[in-house]
Write a structure and sequence with these properties.
heterodimer, A: 482 residues, alpha+beta, Beta-Lactamase, Heat Shock Protein 90, 5-stranded antiparallel sheet, 5-stranded mixed sheet, 11 helices, 55% helix, rod-shaped, B: 286 residues, alpha/beta, D-Maltodextrin-Binding Protein, domain 2, 2 domains, 6-stranded mixed sheet, 13 strands, globular
């Protein structure tokens, strides 16, 4: 049960708590009313008893003085004869005690006969009997013992300062009970009615309060080790705690996604870096013997006997070695090439270079070059990047290639778009690897070289590929122009 | 003023206006008749119609006067403030010097009645007055024969006195209330007019069922109507005639039925000799 309550959805918990609170309030209010009613009933009773007692005591003076017992009996019996009165106000027993504390007259003569000692018949009367014989005490007294089911009001019968006896009125406390039960029943009914009214309101409130939390919790539940690609969270917009929690959660989600993307990029770039180191190592190892071999061939051609058959073989050998050298050189991207700063002219040259290729394939080349001044970037490398991107784009394009070159105060961006087949998301991580399987034409080193150069220039490459548009953008930081 | 007096006064006030109106119309003086609880004198509606009946028959206004005890009625007779009264035989024989026997009711065909000794119904052990020694006892009126004198006489016969024989005695000032007192066990025994008890047995059987008759006394003269001796002879004769003639007309007969009586007769002074002897005996008790 405890777990059940703890695990219950706030949707139900809130209405249940509202109802519980309402019930507790109702019970407390009822209890205080009952307490008050008890007090008032008791006070009413005492007030009534005292006023009735005074009237009876005054009326009894004559009969007692004349020793007219029957008159005394008729007087104390008269309250019982006015039928139709509120029964709670009628005493159970009325006794008249004489100065010796003996029964002078009683409304129950069979139980309390004349001259009897009431204390012997009913021990509760013993204390009252004592009071009746105490001549100095001439005030009405209330005897209410908590352990007794009865309440006594004792009123002295006094004539001319002399005490003739005591009128004792006994009330049963159980007379209060029907009144209490009635009030409690009405209170219970009202509480039920109030709860019936409160239930739909509480239900509505509960849903309003719990709704955003429930949605937030449902959204959070979707997050496992990875952030799902198409996580849809319909969160509540507000500035209260739930709204803030939602906003925080969304921020956290975004950061989580960013982090995940960053990790993926890191993985890719680390792999590329490892491949780069490996290929550079191999290239160096190949370059040295290769240089020696080419040198040897060259020496032989100059100083050798000049046998045409050998020369022909060597030429064959030399072409092969040269091809190896070219490939290795392509792998070994050398950034420390001396070159002049990049000018508008350099970029426009590229346009000229690829224009023919584009025209041959029937691809429209849109060109926008924002560069007007020389930039502190090595022109050779930038040209190499640009031509790689342009040739790739023209090769991939359907109808149109767009080239945008622009800068801001800190960086230069070369953006090339084409409208050809787009690159699948799964292929993205392998896009920049050398001899990539994605390269259908060419030697498969174009993007690898581009990547290496961009890295060496502390730049970055962003690829966005959607059906109908693939965009490569290389951003290169400009050195501070002091 | 005690409650009884108050009630009586109230009744008087209620009856007075019509009586006065009647007096004004006829111009004849009002006839004042005292009533005592020798019969059930607490039925106001009956009393009013009986009074009207008597006024009609006498052709003069009639006023009923009720008081708390026999003594007060006797005193009013003595002071000529009442013309006649329905009294007990005991005060009649005691104050005979200024009273005159007017008429005696017939109960069960005779101008006689008895005193009953009653106890609560669930007291099945008491068989005679002697069993009530040391108990509480209710009398009707100190001037009542059946409700006081006969018990005094019975005790005197065995050499006892009421205040020593009983633990507590009290007067209820009406026979009917003696029955009440015994029924609620306020008193463990009581002396009551046999005629009243028998009448109550018809009208309020639930009350008499709570009492049990232990002893019935010998017969005595029924409580009579008496007149002051100074009442003019014509008035005396007229009232006696009206009472005696009640049994002869339907209306009067109806009243007699309600009174549980058979009629009125002129009566003989000898009827009350028994009471006079008892009174003498009790008064001369050492």
């Amino acid at each position: 049960m405890k777990h059940f309550m703890r695990d219950l959805s706030l949707r139900y918990k809130i209405p249940l708590r509202v109802l519980m609170l309402a019930s507790i309030t109702a019970i407390l209010v009822t209890a205080s009313i009952l307490f008050r009613v008890y007090d008032e009933t008791r006070n009413d009773l005492l007030h009534h008893a005292e006023s009735l007692g005074r009237v009876l005591a005054n009326t009894l003076v004559g009969p007692i003085a004349h020793d007219d017992v029957w008159r005394a009996y008729e007087i104390i019996n008269s309250p019982f004869q006015s039928g139709g009165q509120d029964q709670t106000q009628i005493a159970e027993t009325i006794l008249v005690l004489d100065t010796k504390g003996q029964v002078y007259a009683s409304t129950r003569p069979a139980q309390y006969p004349m001259l009897a000692d009431p204390g012997r018949i009913d021990p509760e009367y013993a204390a009252i009997s004592e009071m009746a014989t105490d001549r100095n005490d001439a005030k009405p007294a209330v005897i209410d013992r908590p352990d007794s089911g009865r309440l006594f009001v004792a009123i002295p019968i006094v004539s001319g300062g002399a005490r003739l006896g005591t009128l004792v009125m006994g009330y049963s406390k159980s007379l209060f009970l029907p009144r209490f039960v009635g009030i409690a029943q009405r209170a219970a009914l009202m509480t039920l009615l109030a709860l019936a009214v409160l239930l739909p309101i509480a239900w509505y409130w509960g849903n309003r309060m719990a709704g955003p939390l429930v949605r937030l919790a449902a959204c959070m539940d979707q997050i496992g080790p990875n952030v799902p690609e198409h996580l849809h969270c319909d969160l509540f917009e507000s500035h209260d705690e739930i709204g803030r929690a939602g906003a925080s959660f969304r921020r956290m989600l975004k950061e989580l996604k960013d982090k995940e993307r960053l990790e993926q990029e890191m993985m890719v770039s680390e792999r590329l870096a490892a491949v780069g180191r490996l290929s550079a190592g191999i290239a160096h190892e190949i370059n040295n013997p290769l240089g020696g071999m080419l040198n040897t061939i060259s020496t032989y051609k100059k100083h050798g006997p000049g046998d045409p058959r050998t020369l022909k073989t060597l030429a064959l050998l030399e072409r092969g070695l040269t091809q190896i050298k070219d490939t290795v050189a392509a792998l070994l991207v050398e950034a420390k090439v001396e070159s002049h700063p990049l000018s508008r002219r350099d970029i426009e040259d590229m346009r000229t270079l690829v224009a023919a290729e584009a025209a041959g394939k029937g691809v429209e080349l849109a060109w926008e070059n924002d560069i007007t001044t020389d930039l502190s970037l090595p022109s050779t490398l930038v040209r190499q990047i640009l031509i790689n991107l342009l040739l790739n784009a023209i090769r991939a394009a359907d109808k149109r290639v767009e080239c945008l070159i622009y800068r801001d105060s800190r960086s230069l961006t070369l953006a090339v778009k084409n409208d050809g087949a787009h690159i699948e998301d799964d292929d993205m991580p392998y896009l920049f690897e050398p001899f990539s399987r994605l390269s259908r034409n060419g030697h498969g080193l174009g993007l690898w070289v581009t990547y290496q150069i961009a890295r060496q220039l502390n730049g970055g490459i962003v690829v966005e590929s959607d059906p109908g548009e693939t965009r490569f953008a290389v951003t290169l930081p400009l050195q501070e122009e002091s | 003023m005690s409650r009884r007096n108050f009630c009586a006064t109230l009744a008087l006030c209620a009856l007075a206006p019509r009586a006065i109106a009647a007096a004004m119309s006829t111009g004849r003086p009002v006839l004042r008749i005292g009533l005592t609880p020798v019969f059930l004198d607490d039925e106001a509606i009956f009393l009013e119609s009986w009074r009207a009946y008597l006024a009609k028959k006498l052709r003069r206004p009639v006023i009923f006067v009720q008081r708390g005890s026999y003594r007060e009625i006797v005193e009013l007779l003595g002071k000529n403030q009442l013309d006649a009264a329905w009294l007990c035989g005991f005060p009649f024989v005691r104050h005979e010097q200024y009273l005159r026997l007017l008429a005696v009711p017939l109960f069960q065909g005779k101008p006689l009645y008895r005193s009953y000794l009653i106890v609560p119904a669930d007291d099945t052990r008491t068989t005679s007055l002697l069993d009530l020694r040391g108990k509480s006892f209710a009398y009707s009126d100190p001037d009542s024969n059946s409700g006081f004198l006969y018990t005094q006489f019975s005790l005197a016969q065995i050499g006892e006195r009421s205040d020593a024989f009983f633990s507590r005695t009290f007067y209820t000032w009406a026979h009917r209330k003696v029955v009440d007192a015994v029924a609620v066990k306020m008193a463990q025994g009581g002396a009551v007019d046999g005629y009243v008890w028998e009448t109550l047995r018809h009208s309020h059987p639930e009350l008499t069922a709570r009492t049990r008759v232990v002893e019935r006394s010998p017969e005595f003269g029924f409580p009579p109507f008496v007149a002051r001796k100074s009442l003019p002879e014509t008035d005396f004769a007229a009232l006696r005639q009206v009472l005696i003639a009640m049994r002869d007309d339907a209306e009067g007969h109806e009243f007699l039925l309600q009174l549980n009586l058979d009629g009125f007769v002129p009566g003989d002074r000898k009827l009350f000799d028994g009471i006079a002897r008892m009174a003498e005996k009790v008064e001369n008790q050492p």
